[in-house]
Design brief:
By secondary structure, this protein is of the alpha+beta class. It has nine helices and 19 strands.
Length: 390
Amino acid sequence: MLEERCDVVVVGLGAMGAATLYQLAKAGAKAVGIDRYAPPHDQGSSHGDTRITRLAVGEGAAYVPLVRRSQQIWRELEARDGDALFEQCGVLVMTSGATHTSHHGAADFTLSTIELARTYGIAHEVLTAEQLRARFPQFAPLRDDTIAYYEPEGGFVRPERCIAAQLKAARELGADVIAGVTVSAVESMGNVVRVRAGDRTVVADKVVVCAGMWSAELLGEPFKSLLKVCRQQLFWFKLEEPMIFPEVSPSFILSHGPLDTDFCYGFPPIPGEGSMKIATEQYMALSEPDSLDRTVSDADVAAMFRTHVAGKIAGVTAERVKARVCTYTVTPDYGFIIDEHPALKNVTAVSACSGHGFKHSAAIGEAVAQRCLSGKSQIDLSAFSLSRFS
């Protein structure tokens, strides 16, 4: 069996892992990243062409500095390689219903977003239904009592491109990437950690586990009890002709009823594609990583359109262009876990993203790298400690 030595091993090279490996290499550490597939790939949580990014994060104040820094890092990576990663097209967060909808633990997601923007001086507008219809006619069918938050500095990032850019930069800075190999064990032994992957063993001072839906299996308790895997479906619907979408259209989040399930999100049409991506979230049906159903049926497509698009978003047909499946690995309070393993010395867990992690991932990678190498991070990560579940 081959055995090698390094400073830090990163297990899982999706959103969080790719960012962490890049920042470790950038800081001069000898780092090794391992993934069971060849990232960027479509087998986990970090795919689907687009991910919303916004500065006023309705999930809570602890996320604001992370998304601010992440947006700066996307721009730094764009300047490095010239590839477009962050599209600053704006974000709409809307409530269109008699009862305001909770989401990710926030009792009223839209109003929570507005309050955070006011508190942190984030540029925004609060729009009435009439103003919304005039500026963004695709939302003309919404109720007269709709309230909308518009953030011009938000938009979307491209997850596959972001991961690829960070892994490319990490390699150029000296990191080693081991792809297509499954990690079978993470073992703390004195002051070092052994990571077993295929016929290789990597011995490191520190290990960061960013394995998404495979994290609980690798980390054991308390993660097995805390983390659940929820299968999600992503849909791309064909647009009507002629297209009614303005030239600059925002990403959006729409709460349209009294239940947590009365919620969807979507993106502006990508030039040349003739479709719009829209999705919802579910947290009731649980999945196992190795038996995940990756098919999307015609009945699923029809139900999505009927429930979340028809009568709410104009200019979109019921015709499927494509559909994909991804997973959310979710904690009981929908917050992240970024903390030392309570039983495995020198092992840090970075999971779970709970469905809203990509926008923060670049800064989390930087903060985790700082903690590994110096013992502390510039951005406070204490809100994501395991202790809150004690």
